[in-house]
Prior knowledge:
Layout: E1 2-7, H1 11-21, E2 27-30, H2 39-42, H3 57-81, E3 92-95, H4 100-110, E4 115-118, H5 119-125, E5 135-139, H6 147-160, E6 164-167, E7 172-178, E8 181-187, E9 190-199, H7 205-209, E10 219-228, E11 238-241, E12 244-248, E13 254-257, H8 271-284, E14 293-303, E15 310-313, E16 320-324, H9 330-345
Parallel strand pairs: 1-2, 1-9, 2-6, 3-11, 9-16
Antiparallel strand pairs: 3-5, 4-5, 7-8, 8-9, 10-13, 10-14, 11-12, 12-13, 15-16
Amino acid sequence: MSDVLIIGAGVIGMMMARELAQSGVKVTLIDRKGCAQESSWAGGGIVSPLYPWRYPEPVTQLATWSQSSYVHLATELLEETGIDPELRQKGMLMVAVEDQADALAWAEKYHRPLRLVDSDFLYAKEPELISDLQEGLWMPEVSSIRNPRLGQSLRRSMELNSNIDLQEHNEVSELILENTQVVGVKTSAGKLYADKVVVASGAWSGELLKPVGVELPVEPVHGQMMLFKAVPGLVDRVVLKGGRYVIPRNDGRVLVGSTLERIGFEKRTTEEAAKSLYETAVDIIPKLREYPVEHHWSGLRPGSPEGIPYIGSVPGVDNLYVNAGQYRNGLVLAPASTRLLADLILRRKPIIPSEPYRVDR
């Protein structure tokens, strides 16, 4: 029997297990697939909310804490596992932004490094940008991380930690409830018991909680992305334009994303989205026309009202916790989300006030 059982081995579930295990907690981490095979794998890996000034303050608080922690986390994981998550500290350019005044006001309020730059600056940073851009916004501290490699590195960290029992390809069918207390879960391999249970199942979190009378407003939001097999140096940093983005990898590959579709739990790719993503890519970096599309895929984000996640205990059900609803910002919010819930479980002083993320807010 474990101290804590975590349902969902995405980036958030694995970081949660790592945080608790490093504090001496015995953890069982369980997933119906392999580690980081859902939205953790499917996303782009920008370590910042897109257009961060458009999000409410609770998202900003989590993002600010997480962004500074990724530098240390990436270094620790490389040293610990030998797998480089490929954190690129190259900054982010945003062009054709309609609400620049709001962005600059947000930056001043929260003391974030964001500034208006001219065309000379844009093309010095990214010579292959589409022509005739006059100005843009520059956030020098924004990084990107190669999320599939982050997932691989975290999975290896799980294997190396004796306090973690990792169980992949084992599906949780329901929570085991005794009176008002959760004592474990029923799985495809049998029953598992723990002192505390954490639901960190992304878009599927609400489905797990319904049978115990909890209505969590987390819904699947479908997104499609595309990958170009380009060459190193064609694009060097994240570029946003028109609500979409390109993200370079160390080997030259370039991601473009993403769509937003509310179609339930269905995952599929479409020709319409493929055409739209391709047009987005060449509208930002025209030279991408010269390189082949290598892959087109989709995933399900855990959508929540205003993108504010649910982090904390479940009222009315003892020993049950939730960490879900990060929406488009699962990777950037993961370090702070997991640290905050660990603080609550271990009764430590929280890194930031926990009230905005309450399940019953």
